[in-house]
Design brief:
Blueprint lengths: L4 H17 L7 E5 L14 E5 H14 L2 H13 L18 H18 L15 H13 L5 H11 L6 H11 L9 H11 L8 H8 L4 E5 L2 E5 L1 H9 L3 E2 L8
Antiparallel strand pairs: 1-2, 3-4, 3-5
Helix pairs in contact: 1-2, 2-3, 3-4
């Protein structure tokens, strides 16, 4: 874990002096994990010591110099955290911010970017949690148990969207994004996902009549055993692409 003997000696010498000093929580002092939490250190009192702001900063800098590989990058993460300031923390300021900080900050950003791209993650603003089958199942179960939106909430949403129109720039972006994307039949996996997602969810009253109204005036066409309903004004464009009038052939046996 700690590969550099010189910096390790300096680090543990500093820690030993702090332990003997026996400081308690007070202004200008910060609690430090002797063996960092990210390296397997516990929250036991034996692994905690209070340091001055300067000592705390220097100890984290030493930990970066003491480690290699994955441990090194974890310690860079921790060192970057030493820049955080709030009403409960009095961070030590030094030339580090102008000279060494830049080196570690760039290195940290590059490593973090590669790490995130190599994982199947939910976006950071949604928790940054790695997606697993168990996680998907938990999300699905939570959605099934969630109470339906009240009519008041629905009305407010409709009111907020009334008269809203996408800008021409947004429409163009959406159009460009969809260009070249196949609109063929759904895969069996997609159909199964939709089926499972709808289980246990009751359709609203009037759903059938709404679907019927939406299909009024639509014409059935088929191509390569695929069937769809289209409006009269778009029919000719589909026929020009090889679609045929009528639904697909059914096996009545």
């Amino acid at each position: 874990m700690f590969t550099n003997k010189f910096y390790s000696k300096v680090y543990f010498s500093t820690i030993e002096k702090a332990v003997q000093r026996g400081w308690k929580k007070a202004s200008g002092r910060e609690r430090h994990h002797i063996i960092p939490h990210s390296l397997g250190g516990s929250n036991d009192k034996s692994n905690l010591v209070y340091l001055s702001c300067r000592e705390h900063f220097l100890c984290h800098w030493l930990l970066v110099k003491m480690t290699e590989g994955e441990y090194y990058h974890k310690m860079v993460y921790a060192l970057m955290g030493m820049r955080a300031e709030n009403q409960h923390q009095e961070r030590y300021q030094t030339i580090f911010t102008a000279r060494v900080y830049e080196k570690y900050r760039i290195e940290h950003a590059e490593y973090h970017s590669k790490l995130m791209k190599s994982k199947n993650l939910i976006p950071w603003n949604k928790g940054g949690v790695e997606i697993t089958d168990e996680h998907r199942e938990n999300l699905r179960n939570a959605a099934l148990q969630r109470a339906p939106k009240s009519q008041g909430t629905i009305d407010k949403w409709k009111e907020s969207r009334a008269g809203y129109k996408h800008s021409e720039a947004t429409k163009k972006k959406q159009s460009d994004k969809l260009k070249g994307i196949s609109k063929g039949p759904q895969s069996d996996e997609h159909k199964l996902a939709i089926s499972l997602g709808g289980k246990g969810i009751k359709k609203k009253q009037g759903h059938g009549s709404n679907v019927a109204k939406a299909n009024i005036g639509c014409i059935s066409i088929n191509k390569d055993n695929i069937e769809k309903k289209v409006k009269q004004d778009t029919l000719q464009s589909y026929l020009a692409l090889g679609w045929q009038l009528g639904g697909k052939k059914r096996n009545l046996a």
